[in-house]
Amino acid sequence: MLTMARLRVRLTFPPALIQEPIVYRLVKDFDIVINIRRADVKADHGWIALELEGDERALERGVKWLKDKGVQVDPIERDVIVP
Amino acid sequence: MEKLNGLRCRECGRHYQAAPLHVCEFCFGPLEVDYRYDALKGVVTRESIAAGPPSMWRYKELLPIDGDVAVGHHVGFTPLIRAQNLADELGCREIWVKNDSVCHPTWSFKDRVVAVAVTKAREFGFDTVACASTGNLANSVAAHAAEGRLKSYIFIPADLEQGKVLATLVYNPTLVAVHGTYDEVNRLCSEIADKYRWAFVNVNFRPYYSEGSKSYGFEIVEQLGWRTPGHIIVPCAGGSLITKIWKAIKELKTLGLIDGGLGTKMHAAQALGCGPIVTMIKNDTDVLVPVRPNTIAKSLAIGNPADGYYAYKVAKESGGSGEHATDEEIVEGMLLLARTEGIFTETAGGVTVAAAKKLIERGVIPRDESIVICITGNGLKTPDSLQDRLDAHVKIKPSLSAFDRALADLKSQTS
């Protein structure tokens, strides 16, 4: 049974990934619905604040894939753990 | 007096009613408390503030609290010390140290933000407060929850040493040790904050929580006789403190409590091993590149700071700058402050002193202008940072003759 879930995240892209269609693959390969709210993508660096919605396990796999690719995945608040 | 307009998105400007919200539902930008300054002008005066208690609550009208103060009645109004010995050592005319290493009750400036967050949590009818923290914030949340008779949950990474959590456990919170990487714990806590009706002080209460830092800035100006200093050097972790000190100065100006212009340059201090905000300032770019922290300044170790962009903007807008400090310079900064002023600060304070010294030596901060160094935490909490770096100078047998010889040796070494 599918368990639907939502995540609000901020993706930060290193220079090497700027030209790759990362978000397209996330949607296509993991069947995740995305809703981009704010972004700043420059020639050598970029970030996207977005909502991800899909099956809970698909989201887990999608987030793991992003991290393995070298994308930094943070909760929308970013520094939740404070020293 | 209705002093609050509610919350406002820092990015798209959308308004929200005052509620436990922290992210704009439309653009995911951070929310900030919005005040009705027109209603406060003429009501908040130098005299009305001076008539208030000797604590941060003398500025209560400029904090997002509607009712009575619930906890932390004695937080703040810490000493602003004329640090002449340090000034002499650095060849400066006027250095002040704003000393929150003695902030009541848990010895860091976090007491200011937590006192506001917990009071606001009570106003909104919450019975549980929470945070994810490895240090000062955890201490403060647990202490204020105990005082306010609220339940508290403190989340930590499971591999944190036992010694680090004792100063939190003593207040009897529920401590949840989470097995997982830093990123996993971070995400889990964000999800918990989203699901449970708890006041997660630095998540869903962040707009209120962060306002507490303004009191640090208000105090600097009042304690200088309603004068703004030429320079303030601020340690940066998430980047909120520097933006709130700047906001405090601007609010005092808006309310007509400061004569002349704003007149303060804001300088950011970070460790070289975790300095993404200072890197932005040095490179003059609004692009924040996240880093993996690797520094002894654990209390500043935030690799992707939420307020990094705003901190950069404050340094730029005020005409200030930023400086990194290596681990060695951090320890030297701690020792310099202790040796000259008798103040034992944590590593974050070492970062600030070291950064100030470098900015002065580079000529970025002129030696004849007034300088405030922000000390935000107490060295007694983390003495391990000085492990193997300090030793007894003299070891002797228990006889007077042994001491006489040792003293003669010492005098010959120093003469």
Question: In short, what is this structure?
Answer:
The complex is a heterodimer of chains A (83) and B (415). Chain A has 83 residues and is of the alpha+beta class. Helices cover 28% and strands 42% of the residues of chain A.
Topology of this protein?
The complex is a heterodimer of chains A (83) and B (415).
Chain A: E1 4-13, H1 22-30, E2 33-41, E3 46-55, H2 56-69, E4 72-75, E5 81-82
Antiparallel strand pairs in A: 1-3, 1-4, 2-3
Chain B: E1 4-9, E2 15-16, E3 31-35, H1 37-40, H2 46-50, E4 80-82, H3 84-90, E5 94-99, H4 110-123, E6 128-133, H5 136-147, E7 151-157, H6 162-169, E8 174-178, H7 182-195, E9 199-200, H8 206-211, H9 214-223, E10 231-235, H10 240-254, E11 265-271, H11 276-283, H12 308-318, E12 322-325, H13 327-341, H14 347-361, E13 370-375, H15 400-414
Parallel strand pairs in B: 5-13, 6-7, 6-9, 7-8, 10-11, 10-13, 11-12
Antiparallel strand pairs in B: 1-2, 1-3, 4-5
Helix pairs in contact in B: 3-13, 4-5, 5-6, 9-10, 10-12, 11-12, 13-14
Structure description:
The complex is a heterodimer of chains A (83) and B (415). Chain A is of the alpha+beta class and 83 residues long. Chain A has a domain at 14-36 and 56-71. Chain A has two helices and five strands; from the N terminus they run E-H-E-E-H-E-E. Chain A has helices at residues 22-30, 56-69, and strands at residues 4-13, 33-41, 46-55, 72-75, 81-82. In chain A, strands 2-3-1-4 form a four-stranded antiparallel sheet. Chain B is an alpha/beta fold. Chain B has two domains: 4-68 and 110-209, 3-Layer(aba) Sandwich (Rossmann fold), CATH 3.40.50; 80-106 and 213-386, Rossmann fold. Chain B has 15 helices and 13 strands. Chain B has helices at residues 37-40, 46-50, 84-90, 110-123, 136-147, 162-169, 182-195, 206-211, 214-223, 240-254, 276-283, 308-318, 327-341, 347-361, 400-414; strands at residues 4-9, 15-16, 31-35, 80-82, 94-99, 128-133, 151-157, 174-178, 199-200, 231-235, 265-271, 322-325, 370-375. In chain B, the strands form three sheets. A six-stranded mixed sheet of chain B has the order 4-5-13-10-11-12, with helices on both faces. In chain B, helix 6 (162-169) links the parallel strand 7 (151-157) and strand 8. The radius of gyration of chain B is 22 Å and the shape is globular. The relative contact order of chain B is 0.12. The chains are: A alpha+beta (83), B alpha/beta (415). Chain A binds chain B through residues 8, 10, 12, 37-38, 40, 42, 44-45, 49-51, 67, 72-83, and chain B through 11, 22-23, 26-29, 131-137, 155, 157, 182-183, 185-187, 189-191, 193, 202-203, 206, 237-238, 287, 289-290, 298-302, 304-306. Strand 5 (81-82) of chain A pairs parallel with strand 6 of chain B.
